[in-house]
Amino acid sequence: MSQLSHVDDQGRIRMVDTSDKEASSRRAVASARVLMSPETVKALREHRTPKGDPLEAARLAGIMAAKRTADLIPLCHPLPLTHIDVRAELNETGVSLSAEVATKAQTGVEMEALTAVSVAALTVYDMCKALEKGMTITDVRLESKTGGKSGDYSL
Hints:
Order of helices and strands: EHHHEEHEE
Structural class: alpha+beta
Largest sheet: 5 strands, antiparallel
Helix content: 25-40%
Radius of gyration: 18 Å
Distance between the termini: 27 Å
Number of helices: 4
Number of strands: 5
């Protein structure tokens, strides 16, 4: 078994030292879904949600969350994010979310994109829970990433 990148010689978890890595352009896209009843979808479509517009609140929450990823995930590096785009779209089964995050740094932005869609999904739930408690947050996943030593990835 090869040496784990986030574990030191004594088996303690550590943050990886990226100071010798070249900064490069990196981009990641993640997605998630919030499944809900047809009645809740109809309420969103008709702008009848008690807390206001869940889609816009989710978009803003996702942007804020991407910027705070290093505060939430213990081994993530704080990154100078150069672009964050969070989208929330209503469809027949609920809300589809996507986040695209970019930086020019020594490490990637996959966790920032995943954090953005996760918090956006939680925000949709919070904004709609008065209408339905049985909503399901599902399919949180990395869709693609570019840049870095490990190369490009696409689902």
